[in-house]
Design goal:
Number of strands: 15
Low-confidence stretches: none
Strand content: 25-35%
CATH superfamily: CNF1/YfiH-like putative cysteine hydrolases
Radius of gyration: 17 Å
Number of helices: 7
Largest sheet: 6 strands, mixed
Shape: globular
CATH architecture: 4-Layer Sandwich
Order of helices and strands: EEHEHEEEEEEHHEEHEEHEHE
Helix content: 10-25%
Structural class: alpha+beta
Distance between the termini: 24 Å
Number of domains: 1
Length: 261
Amino acid sequence: MISNTINNLLFFRFHNLLNETSINHYTSTRVGGVSKDHLAGLNLGYTVNDNPLFVDKNIELLAEATEISKKYMVFPKQTNGANIAIVKSVNDVFYDTDALITNIPGICIGVRTADCVPILIYEPEKKVIAAVHSGWKGTVEKISQKAIRIMIDQFGANPEKIIVGIGPSISPDVYEVGADVIQLAKHSFGEKPILKPIPDSNKAFFNLWEANKLVLKESGVPENNLEVAEMCTYSNPDLFYSARRDGKNTGRLATGIMILK
């Protein structure tokens, strides 16, 4: 990934997506912003008991740094599920939705995260984009595969042309899950190496990065078109918010993509 610091606000962009001149994109950090105390920095979530005026200002700062107008930023109301919506207007509201798709230039679709995996998807020939929030549930339900299927069926996308960035999220070294998630992951992925058993326990470390790569490759995306940030939100408290580390009311990061007009 490529780091960018503008007006003391730090964000990242993917190498592979930066090569595409028809889009703009970003993935944020907590560095910069006006939120206070345990949310200190660039909190972009309205649901974590932050002052809404602080969140408004943070989004304005991000918009200025990324050169994407705040009024054209669209985020769904996420519920850690696998529902997907197609964005037709900046005025659309998306409840219980964890991925957005659009082919409309000038609308920046995004997702908010605090350990879960943000995924940006772009098909340059048909010029269609997706922003995906893939937590453990979205991963085992293969939400990215569902998004790509919609891109193919509704917009004629060619999966062999698709370019993907998998953003900062909790790493396989620290993401511990219990027996219920292990069972669901095995049902979804079989014996593929995405779980590392923890000795003397019924728990395992779940490799969300590898699992989502597998989902994307199963969907027809060439491995060379996949870029994984490999940056752990949990292990980098100065850079990222982490729900697993700091609790569910920690701040929220954002990751977004827009087709340029």
